[in-house]
Amino acid sequence: MQLYKSGFAGWNVAHFHSKYRAELSGARSYSWLKSVLQGAGVVKACKVRGKHRIKRERMPMAGMMIHHNASTHRWVPEAVWDLVVTMDDATSEHTSMFFCAQEGTASRFHGLGQTIARYGLFASLYSDRGSHYFTMPEAGGKVDKVNLTEVGRALSQLGIDHIAAYSPEARGRSERAFQTHQGRLPQELARAGITDMSSANQYLDQVYRGAHNREFAVASNLQSTAYVPFISGNLPDILCEQHDRKVIDVAIGCACRVRCKGTLMDAFERGMRCLSNIKGALAAAVVIVITALCIFEIVLRSLFNTPTYLQEEFTGYGLALIAFLGLGRTVFDGVIIRVNLLRDRFPRRLLAKNGITHLLDSAKFSPRFSRLL
Predict the structure, then answer these.
(1) How far, in Å, CA of 312 to CA of 152, rounded?
(2) Residue 361 pLDDT more than 80?
(3) Rounded Cα–Cα distance for residues 314 and 302 (Å)
(4) What is the pLDDT of residues 326-342, one digit of tens each?
């Protein structure tokens, strides 16, 4: 009696009994302590609450379903914090617990990251329909499984199924766990003299979470586990907020696309690429004209011994025009055009017999290749 009044006043009997057995090596049973404390009027007797609904069966294997929830409460006398808890449905084991000023996307990522780092990837996440988890076209309606939040995107990237709860009763297992925490954790923090969040999180990690799991965790129906190691990349690169941006290099006037769609610069880039394709087609036409002039000059000189002297002049102009028209393709694709449009479209035996191969090869002006047709 004196022990309870001096160091555990205000604690419920179950909580006091767990500390009595763990820290003080007490031998008395819970029923004996309860009857003594209630008989002395130190602890009030609580009304027995009836079952208001049928409990959902637990998952048969650890790692098949994880609960993720948070509770706002005055955990210390001077401040109100949010307690974020991640819990295994099959065993009620708390895989992550920490305080934060206000729950949000970052706190969700932190809880998921701790669970995956300690245990591995799990099969599914069971949560409420908060804006951190889901988008809802209508308030109180069905969740949108297409337009994902950052949490939904990360879970999809990790291959984890996301299940939405449509009532607090559906999350009864995690809600009852928070009732336990609200009835025990403030007393333990006060007894340890903890008033700041950093020390409170350290106490959760080093003392409270392990003691809670030892007292309340149960064995799963199947001894094997559904957790699998995460080996497919860098976890912090997935459990983070990702936003679309476009970076523009002004020095060369090129847009570097970084997951950005539907912007004005995107339309400008498409227009410039289309223009470069049109100019590339014109360059190909000039190549054909130059080739025709060369063939025409050969025919006149060979059969009629009458040169036109047009081939040398127009070929120079044509090559300059090809270089100008091909600049767009050079910027976008990093290649330069050469004259190989016709050579690949005639039989090699015919080309070799008439000397056309040598003619076309002599018109090359770059060692890099790009076919336009």
Answers:
(1) 66
(2) no
(3) 20
(4) 777 676 666 555 545 55
* Cα Rg of the chain, angstroms: 38
The per-residue pLDDT for 189 is 93
Which residue in 236, 324, 314 sits closest to 282, CA to CA? 324
* CA–CA gap between residue 241 and residue 235 (Å, rounded): 12
Domains of the chain with bracketed CATH: 2-39 (no CATH), 66-238 (3.30.420.10), 264-361 (no CATH)
| Helices and strands of the chain, counted as H and E runs | 14, 7
pLDDT of 100: 95
Residue 261 confidence (pLDDT): 45
Alpha helices (runs of H) in 23-134, residue ranges in sequence order: 30-39, 105-118
pTM over 0.70: no
Q: How far apart are CA 132 and CA 152, in angstroms?
A: 9
What are the pLDDT digits (tens) for 34-66?
666 666 666 666 665 655 556 778 899 999 999
CA distance 145 to 169: 22
CA 28 and chain centroid, separation = 51
Q: Is pLDDT of 255 > 50? A: no
Out of 216-220, 275-279, 337-341, the most confident range is 216-220
Q: Which of 75, 74, 98, 76 is nearest to 86 (CA)?
A: 98
Q: Output phi, psi for 227, to 5 deg.
A: -70, 140
The set of residues, in sequence order, having a beta carbon less than 8 Å from that of 285 and lying 6+ positions away, is: none
Structure tokens at 270: 């498409």
- Sequence length of the chain is 373
Confidence (pLDDT) at 209: 94
Instruction: Look at residue 276 and give its three-state secondary structure.
Output: helix
Sequence-ordered alpha helix ranges (H) in 41-149 = 105-118
Among 1, 5, 34, CA closest to 18:
34
Three-state SS string across 174-214, please? HHHHHHHHHHHHHHHHHHCCCCCHHHHHHHHHHHHHHHHHH
